[in-house]
Amino acid sequence: MFDGRDFEAAERMIDDWQADIEARAARARELSTRLSRLSARVRSQDELVTVTVGSAGDLTGLELDERIRRRPAAETARLIMATLQAARERLTADVAEVTAQTVGADSATGRAVIASYAGRWGARDV
């Protein structure tokens, strides 16, 4: 039925399979750790607004230059929102880079992570 060589080959195959699973799990843990530490900071072109977003794209910092007082409130609001979007897009690009470095951007996990971030706020050209 089975000889010793078949069992040895099966054991090697199982060992290889287990090692691959453990390596993928380690890369996924590294990805999770690195993503949790990400943030992005963007300054508007006119340097009146600076926005920082955390790893989930949430607003964690907002700095307004004193010159912003000379602008209409609606214009200031639009500038803040545009800068926030730019920070989220930078974060998404950083996520794509970290994902590529850890699990691979073309892996199923990598594609899902990148799509998740891009889909949150409609990031372009990741």
UniProtKB/TrEMBL annotation:
Q: Which InterPro entries match?
A: YbaB-like_sf, YbaB/EbfC
Q: Entry's SUPFAM superfamilies?
A: YbaB-like
Could you identify this protein by its name? YbaB/EbfC family nucleoid-associated protein
Q: Which organism is it from?
A: Paractinoplanes globisporus
Taxonomic classification, please? Bacteria, Bacillati, Actinomycetota, Actinomycetes, Micromonosporales
